[in-house]
Automatic annotation (TrEMBL):
Protein name, per record: SPW repeat-containing protein
Membrane-crossing segments per the record: 12-30, 60-83, 95-113
Annotated keywords: Membrane, Transmembrane, Transmembrane helix
Superkingdom to which the source organism belongs: Bacteria
Naturally occurring in which organism (per UniProt): Pseudonocardia adelaidensis
Amino acid sequence: MFRILADRLRRTVLVSLVVSAVGIPVQILGGWDYPVVPPGMLILLVAGAAALLPVRWAPAISLVAGGFILVGFFVVGDAANMLGSQNALVTVGKWVQMVALVVGVVAAVGSLAKPPVPLGRDRTRPA
């Protein structure tokens, strides 16, 4: 577990997807209509936690779930609400959610693109 947390990209995926999930309650405080338990928030929290799984492909789960939320954001036309068409809390919540989501998706891609480190080797010491 601690070895996974030492990976800067996976830590970025975790933190950014959790911050993205926090954007949803901010929108709710601003009066945006969500179900009692927002599915987007649950998806983001689980996707962030998936980055902690001790397998090489774990960030792929975060990438797929984050991509799902990101595509849904544009499909339903929420991009217009980022320009201040709603009150300040809704606008801030949308920005927090989307900026953190994009950072998390990019970090997940980066984590998947980097070469794996063989077990028993330390990244800081040359081979």
